[in-house]
Amino acid sequence: MNGQQPGDPAKLARALLTITDQDEPLLRFVAGANAIEGVRAKAQELLTQAEASRELGSALDTDTGPAATAPPVASAAAGPGTTAA
Fold it and tell me: What is the phi/psi pair of residue 24, to 5°?
């Protein structure tokens, strides 16, 4: 940081005091229009990735997805030719 960032430090201080006085303060406060846009863009990217992962990722929670048809993993402790219990 070089001290040339946009924004008014006094306004930030007032905003932080406002948050501390709230009955249910924000868990995360994003200060500044440019920061808000960056967080919004990252949130959208994460939502897009979550949707793209839905089919494969959700299948891991049940016995009906691709993971259920995978062969059992052999355990080194179980010895050759055996599978872990």
Answer: -125, 85
Under a CB-based contact definition with an 8 Å cutoff, are residues 37 and 31 in contact?
Answer: no
Domain limits of the chain? 29-62
Per-residue pLDDT of 11-31, as tens digits, reads 999 999 999 999 999 999 999
pTM above 0.85, yes or no: no
Can you list the alpha helix ranges (DSSP code H) found in 24-80? 33-58
Distances (CA, A) of 31 to 1, 3, 37, 57: 15, 16, 10, 34
Locate 43 and state its tokens: 């949130």
